[in-house]
Amino acid sequence: MNHAQLVALDHQHTLQTYGRFDVDIDHGKGATLWDLAGRKYIDFTSGIGVCSVGYGNETWAKAIYDQALTLGHISNLFYSQPYAQLANTLCERTGMAAAFFGNSGAEANEGLIKLARKYSFGQYGKGRSTILTLKNSFHGRTITTLTATGQDVFHQYFFPFMEGFRYADANDLDSVKAQGGDDVCAVLVELVQGEGGVLPLESAFVQGLAQLCAEKDWLLLVDEVQTGVGRTGTLFAFQQYGVSPDAVSFAKGIAGGLPMGGFLVNEKCRPVLGPGTHASTFGGNPICSAAARAVLDILDEDALKAVTEKGNYLRAGIEKLQKKSIGATRGLGLMIGVEVKEGYTNKALAAQLIENGLLVLTAGPALRLLPPLTITKDEMDQGLAILDRVLE
Ligand SMILES: *Cc1c(COP(=O)(O)O)cnc(C)c1O
C-alpha cells in the first residue's frame, strides 16, 4: 500500500475526528520512524508521550510476547502476578500506598474524582462534592473530565456538562481560596500543564496548595497522565515538587505504547474504594502490566537522571539556534515547550517540521516536544539539525 491508497482507505470508513497531518508512519526503531515510502523521521513526540522507551524496544516487546504466551487476560475477580507486582513496584518507587489500574488517562482521572467524592461522603456526608481545577488545564475527553478541564473551548456541544467543578487561576493561591467553600472536597491539578502549553506550576504555589488542602481536608489530586512515568526526570513530577498528593493519576507513558492508565493513593485514601465501588474489565490486564513492568525496569534511576540531562541538552540546543520564529523554552525533563514568536503559528511551524522529517506536537500557542525518554544524543542532534534547516 502506498500513502495515497492508505489515505483513501482511512477516509472510506473511519470517523474523521482527528485533524491528521498528511504523513503516514509505518515502523520505527528507537526515536526514529519511517513512512511507507521509506522516508525517515526523527520523533520528538513518542505518540503523545506514550512510547516512553522508544519504538521496537526489545526488552518491552519480549515482556509482552512472553506474557501473551503465558496469560493474555484474566478477570480481575482472580489474582494474577503482573497486576500485584506492578502495583508494588509503583508504590515502592513513589511512597504511595496502593494502586488501581484502568485503560486511559481520562478514566484514571474519573477514578480520582470518584475517590475524592467517596472519601468526602464517608467523612462529612452529602453536599461536599465540588472539585477545584485550574484554568488552562486538561483532564480528558469523557463528559466528566471535559467538565474538569478548565478551558471554555472544551465546554461546547455536549451539554449538559456535570455539576461540581469550579476553576481557579494557576499559580494564584488567593484565586483557589476564592473558589473554595464548604462544598469543596478536592483540588485536581497538572504540575506541568501539558495540553495548555507546557506550563510548569510554580513550586511555592504547589506547596501552598498542599498546605491549604491539608488544612481544609480537601484531597490533593495530581493528574500525572502526561508528566508521570519519568517524563519530567523523576518517576512522577510530584517527587520534585516536595509535596505528597493524596492520589495521583498516570497513563500515557506507563506501558510504553499499550493502553493503560490508573492511579495511586496514599495511606489515608487506601480504604476509600472497597469491593464493588470501582472496577474495570481490562484494567491492569496482564500484558499491559507486564509491559509497564518492563518500562519501569528500563527507567531506572540512571535513566531518569539522563532524562533531565537530555532535556537540558535539547533546550540549550534549541535556544542556541536563535531563530526568528521561536523563542525561549520551558518545561521539565523531556517535556518541553517552545515559545512561538508573533507572526508565526505553532500549527504551521509543526506542519513544516513534520514534512521535513521531524515530528513535533503543539500545545496551547507553543510547540511541544515529548521525545522517547530513551532518545540518543545522535537522534537529538539530527532533530536539532532539522530545526536549524527548516526554521531558517
Ligand atoms: C492526555 C491527557 C489526559 C487524557 O488521557 P487519555 O488517555 O487520552 O484519556 C488527561 N490528562 C492529561 C494531563 C493528559 O495529558
Salient structural properties:
392 residues, globular, binds pyridoxal-5'-phosphate, single chain, alpha/beta
Can you characterise this structure?
It is found in: Cytoplasm. N(2)-acetyl-L-ornithine binds at residues 141, 280. Belongs to the class-III pyridoxal-phosphate-dependent aminotransferase family. ArgD subfamily. Keywords: Amino-acid biosynthesis, Aminotransferase, Arginine biosynthesis, Cytoplasm, Pyridoxal phosphate, Transferase. 37% of the residues lie in helices and 18% in strands. It has helices at residues 3-13, 46-49, 58-70, 81-94, 105-124, 143-148, 173-179, 203-216, 286-298, 301-320, 346-355, 377-390, and strands at 27-29, 32-34, 40-43, 98-102, 130-134, 165-168, 184-189, 192-193, 199-200, 219-223, 247-250, 261-265, 326-332, 335-340, 358-359, 361-363, 366-369. It is globular and about 60 Å long. The model has no long low-confidence stretch (mean pLDDT 98). The structure holds pyridoxal-5'-phosphate. Pyridoxal-5'-phosphate binds at residues 104-106, 109, 138-141, 190, 194-195, 223, 225-226, 251-252, 261. The site of pyridoxal-5'-phosphate has 17 residues, from helix 5.
In short:
With 392 residues, the chain is of the alpha/beta class. It has helices at 3-13, 46-49, 58-70, 81-94, 105-124, 143-148, 173-179, 203-216, 286-298, 301-320, 346-355, 377-390, and strands at residues 27-29, 32-34, 40-43, 98-102, 130-134, 165-168, 184-189, 192-193, 199-200, 219-223, 247-250, 261-265, 326-332, 335-340, 358-359, 361-363, 366-369. The protein has twelve helices and 17 strands.
